[in-house]
Amino acid sequence: MSGALGHLRIIDFSDSLAGQYCARLFADHGASVMLVEPSAGSPVRRMAPFSSSGESLLFFHLNTGKQSLALDRDSEEGAATLRTMLAGADVAILPPDVDPDAISEDNPHCVVVQPSLFGSEGPRAGWQGPEIVLQALSGMMHNNGAGGREPLFGTGNRAALASGVGAYIGALAALYARENIGRGQVVRIDAAETAASMCFPYVMQHIYNGTVRQRTEQAVQAGQVLCRDGWVCIWVYNFRWHALLKALDLLELEFDARFADPAIRRENWEALFAIIQAKVSQMPAEDLVEILQQAQVIAAKAYRPSELIGNRHLAARDYWDEVNGKRVLGPAFRLGAAPRQLQGGAPALGEGAVPSWPAPSLPDAGSVGGRPIEGLRVIELTTAWAGPMSGRVLAYLGAESIHVEAPNRVNSWRLNKDKPNPINFPDFKPGDRWYDRSFLFNSQNVNKLSCILNLKTEEGRATLRRLVAVADVVVCNFRPGTLKKLGLDYQSLTSIKPDIIVAELPAFGTFGPMSGYAALGPTMEMATGMSAMIGYPGGQPEVTGPSYLDPIGGFNAAAAILTALVYRQRTGQGQYVEVPQVEAAMQLIGAEILKAGETDADPEPNGNRVEFASPHDAFPARGEDQWIAIAALDEQQWRRLCEAMGTPELAEDPRFSSLGRRRDNEGELTRIIASWTARHDKHELASRLQAQGVAAAPVQTPKDLAEDPYLAHRGFFTELDHPDAGRHRHPGLPIHLSLTPGAQLRSAPPFGRHNRHVLETILKLSPDEIVAIEASDAMATEPLEGA
Known about the structure:
Elements: E1 9-12, H1 17-28, E2 32-37, H2 57-63, E3 67-70, H3 76-88, E4 91-93, H4 100-106, E5 111-116, H5 131-138, H6 158-181, E6 186-190, H7 191-197, H8 200-209, E7 222-227, E8 230-235, H9 241-247, H10 262-267, H11 269-280, H12 285-294, E9 299-301, H13 305-309, H14 312-316, E10 321-323, E11 326-328, E12 334-335, E13 377-381, H15 386-396, E14 400-405, H16 439-444, E15 449-452, H17 458-468, E16 473-476, H18 482-485, H19 490-494, E17 501-504, H20 521-528, H21 549-571, E18 575-578, H22 581-586, H23 590-599, E19 616-620, E20 627-631, H24 635-644, H25 659-664, H26 666-677, H27 682-691, E21 695-698, H28 702-706, H29 709-713, E22 717-722, E23 726-731, E24 736-737, H30 755-762, H31 767-775
Helix pairs in contact: 1-6, 2-23, 5-7, 6-7, 6-21, 15-21
């Protein structure tokens, strides 16, 4: 029973990346995990990338710490063995072709998790979903790459593995609920819906005012320069303009008419970065990043995956592990009271024995209803995306989440640092309370309460301490050390609430040479090694989303907090939780990092083209900036694509008759396919190709997502009223529990709307105490000027 989840027994007979990553997270934290495979082995064993010995590094990465049992589930003996195992399992992770309701009915103690691509019924059920299809449908791909060129899908299998994190979150929530309702339930999650949930702010923007965000808008605040040994991404906030120029010894530009005003500066962005490029071209990239970070300017080197192996910061954090002589990525998150427990490497096929697990001991059945973690209280000291996203997931699952801001330091997504831009508001109207009408803040803070406390005042800190005394979780995504400076660090808070769980989301961790670096989604994508694998041939590294790693960070933080909550439920012990967002995100390209570490070679960015399939790209469709993603994943799909194009003879053309030849002649192949796709509607053509067995998808815009029939069928959108922004559909989350489902019940809170509720109802303060706090500098109902 070592590790946070050492009391749990997991059967993983999924055959998907999502299912196997979900089970890997359980194994990381001590659970006993049995991977049940067919006699030929899991199909993931045959997926690239491969080690020099021919082993699938993807399988190794997803299955470290498990045992393997080869089993014919269709045979009488295999079915009987499976029934025996299910009788003692806490969690069963299923493939899409097994009925989860039947498994749950026969094994009411068991939490039954079923990840899938598109679900077992409804629009797109049966569609093929490689990563390029998931990213095309999600709305993310539409944002990636250069205007006028094919959009980029990204790299690796990030959408599929993100849905594995979501499956783990759902499973933990169901396990937590099991102690209250006395039984398990079914958890369903789709990779396609998960991928859409990573991009929902821009769908919300479209719902607010019809805006369709374009790829040309991505470089408004960021740019890249090529240093002596690599690329560096620099994020230029207007309020850090002087700091940037001083750090680079370019103060003369402060008076340059091309750059003095932010709006004009954006028009001369290329000229600005040409000047910066000339200044830094001979500098080591890490030196430039250090200079800028010391000036509190956000920047990051675009590390190549192979550079991560000897990275000084990761080495100082003792990040890398080794199992049976093989390198293993470090944990996605670190639990202070129950560190990760590695239990061996990836298993050989069938090396495990049938486990003899006794039936789990459960409490008497309680009433079923409500949400899975109702009764828990979360204090959010967060801003922007990743931190609030973690609180939003917990609030969706039933926690009471109190979003705490200071009157002079409000959530940056309220957009009150700059003059309100109409593009961010309903019907393009900022209104009197524009800080309550931003699509960004309102997309991310559904279900929450708003309490304004100035933590730089003793009254504000004292009020927060009183809140901690009646809370379960404190989550913070400020710079490391901020809580300690305020006297609100974990050790201080345990003196108030011994079983409190404190989770911090530092980009680079709480210690190490880069621990003090600030970051955003794009710069974290650079630091993980992802951006170096994304781009056009010969071009600079690209970022996706533009902030893909922010929602991923929120998912990882929610997973970490739920792991700690399940541990506390069993032991009564709280703990400190560290979620280094860069390290957590590295898991999504773990196999690619391991490959680069073994070969000391990095994949060269090549648009959407990959080694394992051709064609595998985005092609123009009918209309302006309309695209369709198409991937022929094997020779049969290639032949079906040729038939769909009306050119079956193309399959036998010597230039294209094998994968290797198609890859050698990809330029010509792209031209042939593009001339055909350009005549067709992207939605109609994708549906037709999928019906014929070819992986394809429209590259969807925010407008497409708002009207998407698959998301509508999934109930992805919930209409909510906001007192300042009005009634709108709000994008949801992809985690579906059968007995205690999550829900979106309230729109994001107006600034300070729940101050009195917190003081009166939650803290139960006297009328005199309430009057004193409300009259002090500790509390406000409007942001201070320039906050």
